[in-house]
Sequence to fold (191 residues):
Amino acid sequence: NNATYNKTKFVQDYSSHKNNGTAESVTWNTTGGYNGRGGYDFSGPNNITIPHSESLNLTNVVTVSAWINPKTAGQHYGILEKTIGGAVNKQYMLFLESGYAKFRVAKSSTLYTAASSGTVSAGQWTHVVGRYNGSAASVWVNGVEQTTTASVTGPLDGGNGITIIGKLGSNIYDFNGLIDEIIVWNKSLSN
Fold:
């Protein structure tokens, strides 16, 4: 329990990297997490912003995971994006597009996108993972690797930029629903 912090403004990273963020118009729901122990409710133009950190400026391998519970199916929703200069589509991102879970990486300003074969349901918790292993981007939904991958040999583009939870870039794909347990690893996790 982290009762000394105001969870409606300050978001604590419990890893050793301390990539703490600032919540902007995001509500902490004490029972809203996938495990019933709390999660963040995104319901409009809002997000969590994490200042630039070299521990998130990952160019050789990266895995991003999150539990999501979108309020509406078939939408465009940003889950997490590591930006370069705050701009969209510059490094790596996990998001929903028309309800499909996608993980996108950039190399030499070219975009490579892995996608789920089906859409994510509204009103229920779904575990989504995006992974770049040095040679391909891939997506998992509820522990199942999806078939649409994107081959790209690293390193990925990298640079100074914020990381955003709940939308992409400066203001697109605002998430509407609950997000919990977002984790970024500096390694390529396997199933």
Notes: Residues 1-5 have pLDDT under 50 and may be disordered. The chain is about 0% helix and 50% strand. Residues 60 and 155 are 5 Å apart (CA to CA).
